[in-house]
Amino acid sequence: MTNMNDAGTPRANKPAIALKRRNDAIKKYVFKLKKLEELLETNAIESIPKNMRPATFVAWIDETLGIERFSRNALYETDVEYTALHEKMEHLLERLAKKRQSKSKKESEISNLREQLKTAERRIQSYVDDYTAARAELQEKDKEIARLLLQLNRMKDYDQKVTPLRSVRRSHDDSDRH
After folding, report:
1. Is 166 within a domain?
2. Is pLDDT at 176 greater than 90 in this prediction?
3. Where are the coiled-coil regions (predicted)?
4. DSSP code string of 99-120
5. Alpha carbons 58 and 38: distance in angstroms, whole number
6. Helical H runs in 42-79?
7. pTM over 0.70
8. Cross-strand bridge partners of residue 10
């Protein structure tokens, strides 16, 4: 007796345990694909293992998500049902890789922007320090100018109080007397 597979082609009789394992593997495969798709759609890719490849996908276990391991042999099955699952897995893994790549680009860009910000902050602090030093020097010069102006005004006041001396010319008559 032959069974018909999902594609409608005859399948050789398989023991019940083999059919049960196959069905369990397909259920786990489908469930994993659904969870992977959900995680991609919600951008919750942190819980997905790094460098996810088909072999990693098969071995991926996450108790909190209910994800279980299934046989690696499922990757090598050529039934129509498995082929559709393989294609979907490859598509989802490509989406994951693109998301991670764009995320790492964003992180790299953020890191570069943070470094530029730190450089700008250091430059600004340098300008502030230069400004503070120049302002302090200017204030010292202003004090010196004020002191010199006060000294000049005192000298002018003192000069007005002093009677200027006049030079006296000697007349010709005075020169003969001596």
Report:
1. no
2. no
3. 86-158
4. HHHHHHHHHHHHHHHHHHHHHH
5. 17
6. 54-59
7. no
8. 4
106 domain residue, yes or no: yes
> pLDDT tens-digit profile of 118-175?
989 998 999 999 999 999 999 999 999 999 999 988 888 877 776 666 777 776 665 5
What backbone phi and psi angles, to 5 degrees, belong to 169? Answer: -95, 140
Structure tokens belonging to residue 139: 């204030």
Those residues whose C-beta lies under 8 Å from the C-beta of residue 29, and which sit 6 or more positions away, are 70, 74, 82, 85, 89
pLDDT band at 177 (very low <50, low <70, confident <90, very high): low
Instruction: Domain count for the chain, please give it.
Output: 1
Backbone φ and ψ of 42, nearest 5°: -95, 5
Encoded amino acid at 116, one letter: Q
The answer to whether residue 124 is domain-embedded is: no
3-state secondary structure of 54: helix
Range of the domain at 27: 3-113
pLDDT of residue 2: 45
φ, ψ of residue 160 in degrees (nearest 5):
-70, -30
